[in-house]
Structure formats: C-alpha cells, structure tokens
Amino acid sequence: MLIVVTVLAALAAPHAKALRGLVADGRAVIAAPATPAAPAIRRPTPGAALAVAFAMRQRGKPYRWGAEGPGAFDCSGLTWAAWRAAGLAIPRTAAAQLASLPSARGRLQPGDLLIYASRGPSRRHVAMVVGRGRMVEAPGRGIPVRSTIRRGYLGAVRPGGGR
Asked: What global pTM score does this model have?
C-alpha cells in the first residue's frame, strides 16, 4: 500500500502548483464536470429479443463454413438461424443480408446485423448487435461463436424493418 501511495504522490507532485491555483479559500474555482448521461438504447422488438437470445445461447459452439446449426455455425448461418428462431425468414448469406434487408436507421438496436469486409471466401462477414457496444458472431475457423466488442463495419441492416 505504501508503494502505491508513494507512486501516486510522485505522479501528482509536478501538478500540485497548477492544482493549488484552481482552489481559492478552500473552495474549487472551477465546477466539476457533469456526469454524462448514458446514451439511450431502445428495447429490442419482441422478434429481435428472441433472435438475440437464440444467438447468445450459441456461444461456444464451433465455427464451420456453411453451417446453419444446431451443432456449428458460420457467421451468416448464425444470424439466419437466430432470426428464423424468432419467426422471420432472412437471406442466408452476409452479402444477401446486406443487399436485401432494410438499412438500420438511427441508433443501432439489438438484433441489427452488422456487415464487415473479410478475407473469407464470400468477402463479407456478419454479426448481430446484442446491446450497447456488443455483438455476437461466428468469427471464423478455430474461433467459436462469441460475444465481443463491436467495431467498425461496412453496413448495418435491420431485419423486419423495426423502428
């Protein structure tokens, strides 16, 4: 514990004079920044909630090119099977999902599909938004279905149109 306090003191020392200048008569001269509100996220539609729940239950299953479940999935096989479990038929491949489904307007919502460029045979990869900043995907050979942090994407589509 003493080491931690010593390190913190050493790091703060060069800034002590500047910090003293921000305090007058024992009161802060500047106001503390307001805590930003967390961005609102819409509740998923009932169909999207079913699709997300299905996809999340597949975590840990192996990736296999062309697989549509139940024992293994490829990326678009996972999204196709998830939306099928929710009662909505969508195209089977990532490229067809991007080309055929309505664009996601506004904020991304759980159940939206994110299309990425890939080096795989189809040149496209797809994942499903599961919540704020997260997605579920069947990423590729040797990596099982997983939930991960969302990253940049080529396009976003919303099966069923939604809101």
From this structure: 0.72
Domain assignment present for residue 84? The answer is yes
**Averaged pLDDT for residues 33-43:** 45
| Total residue length of the chain | 163
Phi then psi for 27, rounded to 5 degrees? -120, 145
Q: Are 63 and 73 in contact (CB under 8 A)?
A: yes
Give the list of residues 6+ apart from residue 31 with CB closer than 8 angstroms, or none. Answer: none
Report how many domains make up the chain.
Answer: 1
- H or E element that contains 143: none
State the residue range of the domain holding 94: 46-157
Average pLDDT in the chain? 81
CATH number of the domain that 137 lies in? 3.90.1720.10
Under a CB-based contact definition with an 8 Å cutoff, are residues 81 and 54 in contact? yes
Using CA atoms in the order 40, 49, 99, 76, what is the torsion angle rounded to 10 degrees?
120
